[in-house]
Design goal:
Layout: H1 6-13, E1 29-33, E2 42-46, E3 52-55, E4 61-65, E5 68-74, E6 87-93, E7 109-115, E8 121-126, E9 138-140, E10 146-154, E11 163-171, E12 177-182, H2 194-203, E13 211-216, H3 221-224, E14 235-239, E15 244-248, E16 255-259, E17 274-275, E18 283-287, E19 298-302, E20 321-326, E21 331-336, E22 355-358, E23 364-368, E24 373-377, E25 383-388, E26 410-412, H4 442-447
Antiparallel strand pairs: 1-25, 2-3, 2-26, 3-4, 5-6, 6-7, 7-8, 9-10, 10-11, 11-12, 13-14, 14-15, 15-16, 17-21, 18-19, 19-20, 20-21, 22-23, 23-24, 24-25
Length: 448
């Protein structure tokens, strides 16, 4: 809720000399909040300080876990016999890292864990001796097992270097791996042409696909109507670098649905619905859960960053979008851009990370991860809540800069946290000074 900050900048000087490059008057905390139009709850997200934070709508931190999260996963009370406030996190990084290791490619983490509200480890998978190279995805399934994206170095036929093979793994509470799936074994099913596969080999990029989502489809009306591609336990898997998303059949292991890697040129601004057009470097590709507005459609944070084989041509402006796609017709049925909030299209952009979440009242939570900006929009695109993370830090010890990036954020109801956890729903308009185009700000009303 604070807006500042010269004091914040001065404090960073004690952290790192590179803090001199950070503006000292950027807004942080909650900059705008309309309680009547927002869906109100807590927001769970990883700070770039390698800790996990829970805030209320006014930006007040109500809890913190000392663990980093890539991403944090709020475990449902129904899966814990009513216990509240438990999350999945990364417990520790490997002490000795391979030369190709980075948080982004998965070759860093040694173990993952379930921790309670007090931060106690109540379940762990992996260790320094038997590391788990989990990255980008970590979920507790409805059956009580845990789903994660993993990574391992592997030599593929026709490659003269080791690549990072991404795997999907399902782990029981007893730590037994009961199902796994390897991208390397199914690369030929991702829709790449022979020429594109040659470009991939010649890139000499070990992390050439860079998978960033592995989410179960969940109950949906498509499957109920007889479309077996959308069986609830099938997995929706996304490749950032390949501009391709697929559904993996749990029983056969085959890819049975796909979008990309080739798309029509961008048709941004054209009427909806329209065929899915060019996505670039997308994140958090998942089916909207049953019971929410848009259930059964696929929600995607389309970064429009640099990706593709060959590199995809971007638009004149660097600008991201969030799109909702009918998975059967493969048409865009809803989209958000900066223009939807009466701002320049370039004001909304994150070249990497980021996510979006559909909320019970039809609003959408958006994490513009590159700038640490979280905000909530109505279906029409009005911003009804905005927050900028004040948690700066280094992503890796070898980095020479600090940032406030947020990989992924989730909203949870107040009842997810222990009873009595404080929260406030006081309107905030201080951001109007910095963002006069926010709906509800006096400057915008005058302009109208």
């Amino acid at each position: 809720m604070k807006l500042t900050h010269r004091l914040f900048g001065l404090l960073l000087l004690t952290f790192c000399h590179s803090a001199l490059a950070i503006p000292t008057a950027i807004p942080v905390g909650t900059t705008f909040y309309d309680p009547a139009r927002a869906w109100n709850g807590f927001i769970l997200f990883p700070g770039n300080d390698n800790q996990t934070h829970l805030i209320d709508m006014t930006g007040k931190e109500v809890h913190r876990w000392k663990y980093e999260s890539f991403p944090p996963w709020p475990i449902k009370r129904e899966q814990l016999n009513g216990q509240r406030g438990r999350i999945l996190v990364q417990l520790e990084r490997q002490n000795k890292l391979d030369k190709v290791a980075s948080p982004g490619n998965g070759m860093v983490n040694a173990s993952v864990a379930e921790v309670n509200w007090q931060g106690d480890v109540v379940w762990q998978y992996g260790s320094q001796a038997t590391p788990v190279h989990q990255h980008h995805e970590l979920q507790r399934l409805d059956n009580g097992n845990t789903l994660l994206l993993g990574a391992a170095l592997k030599r593929l036929p026709g490659y003269d270097y080791d690549v990072i093979d991404n795997t999907i793994e399902e782990i029981t509470p007893q730590g037994k791996k009961i199902w796994s799936w390897s991208v390397a074994d199914h690369l030929h099913e991702f829709g790449f042409s022979d020429k594109q596969l040659q470009m991939i080999r010649e890139s000499h990029d070990p992390d050439f696909l860079h998978m960033n989502t592995a989410a179960p489809i969940g109950p949906n009306h498509w499957f109920d109507a007889g479309d077996k591609r959308f069986a609830p336990d099938n997995i929706l898997l996304n490749s950032r670098n390949g501009n391709v998303a697929v559904i993996v059949d749990r029983r056969s292991g085959k890819v049975i649905w796909r979008i990309g890697p080739d798309y029509p040129a961008s048709q941004l601004g054209k009427p909806l619905p329209r065929p899915l057009d060019q996505m670039i470097g997308e994140h958090d590709v998942h089916m909207i859960p049953a019971g929410l507005p848009g259930a059964g459609n696929i929600l995607i944070f389309d970064n429009q960053g640099n990706a593709g084989y060959p590199p995809t041509r971007q638009g004149f402006f660097s600008a991201s979008r969030v799109i909702e796609v009918n998975p059967v017709s493969k048409q865009i049925v809803w989209e958000y851009t900066g223009e939807k909030s009466q701002q320049a299209i370039s004001t909304f952009y994150s070249a990497y990370i980021s996510n979006a979440q559909r909320l019970p009242n039809g609003n959408t939570l958006i994490d513009e991860g590159q700038s640490g900006r979280l905000f909530q929009v109505t279906p029409q695109g009005d911003i009804v809540w905005e927050y900028v993370s004040p948690f700066y830090g280094k992503a890796m010890p070898r980095d020479h800069y600090v940032a406030n990036t947020v990989y992924r954020a989730y909203m949870v109801p107040y009842t997810w946290a222990p009873e009595g956890t404080p929260h406030h729903e006081t309107a905030v308009t201080s951001g109007c000074t910095h963002y006069p185009a926010l709906p509800g700000c006096p400057a915008l009303d005058v302009a109208k």
